[in-house]
Design brief:
Elements lengths: L9 E4 L10 H28 L6 H29 L4 E3 H34 L4 H4 L2 H14 L2 H10 L9 E2 L6 H7 L5 H34 L4 H30 L10 H25 L2 H13 L2
Amino acid sequence: MLENYTEVSAFLIVGFPGLQLEHFHTVAWFLFILYVTTVVGNLVLVVMFALEHSLQKPMYIIMVSLVLSDVGFTTVALPKLIARYWWNDASIGFYTCHFQRHMIHYFGSLNSLIMLTMAMDRYLAVCFPLRYPMLMTAPTMTILTVFSWLVAHVFPGVTSINFTQISFCGSNEIIQAFCDTLSLTALACGDKRYLSGASYATAMFILLVPLGFVIFSYFCIIISVFHMTSGQGRRKTLSTCATQGCIISIYYIPRFFVYSAPHIPNMQMTSDSRIATTFFYSFFPPLINPFVYCLRTKEIKKTHNTAPLTQR
């Protein structure tokens, strides 16, 4: 019987291959500021939601879930990348890398489920406004949120089980900003077709199934909007959906191309373009989500504007 073996005891996070050593500290400062801004901005919103009881509604439960997911993803991914450029510390332990890979894809899967829940909430609110208060209560949204946080472990878990059956005995350089399935699969020994195919199928399932419902819900919402008699209500609904649609597009479309490139002929991406695309869809939405989803909300604006007055 053949036994699994592992000659690689640690991996090296290469990051951006073309980046020169003299720019390392500049990039490290940029990543550090990005990390602090993202975490502080999102946690301020969590505190605001916790203290302001008028915001404890189904829609805001989704937003808090998204905020916590963004903080979790950023915290798993960025500190090691910052260390890589600040102290030129590229080494990451074998099991630490696998844990990071699992959590990276866990939070990616969780965000997909959160966007599915968000689309469901908007669909019910616009298409069934009279039944919405009964269908989407705070307890119902809490159950859906907890369910999403638990189920999201299943999808990266499938790949984690597959990784226990392979070995790494060649290069240990991860040409990416963090440990992910594509990078680790490239370093595996032996026949990688099954692992690559299973990982791709899992990724497409967690991406395309929620995206399918998101597209369906937005199609129904647009039809309902054009039947509205109130021009102000029509503009408000379209503005909200357009904003959410931009963030959803940033999340889904680049991921599809990065995951699909190795499986589609004549659709190859260079290492730098793949890393840049991954960096964009991974860290840009967590940075702007507090402003897009929350600061434009009427209740938050009201809270933000009245708080200073109460202190005078």
